[in-house]
Amino acid sequence: MCLVPELCFLTGLTDEMRSDFHVMRDISMYTRITPNQRQAAVKKFVGNIQGKKKGMSTIRTLSSLLSVVKFVILPRDSHCQCYI
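The chain above was modelled as a monomer; its predicted structure follows.
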């Protein structure tokens, strides 16, 4: 299974895990990558999907579903900070 980093949030870390230097160092190997490394990973991910019939059919299905979804862009609330 491949996960797109931009679409995933790191959750479920306990305070003990956050305070453990070794755990955070291991996590940072995957979250703090250079733009070139990120681009290479995305290219590999896309290549893997395009190389599989089931992957392409899933993308087509998702694409058709997203084409009927209406998106609304809300104005930014000045009292709330959001991290995406």
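The CA atoms of residues 32 and 38 lie 9 Å apart.
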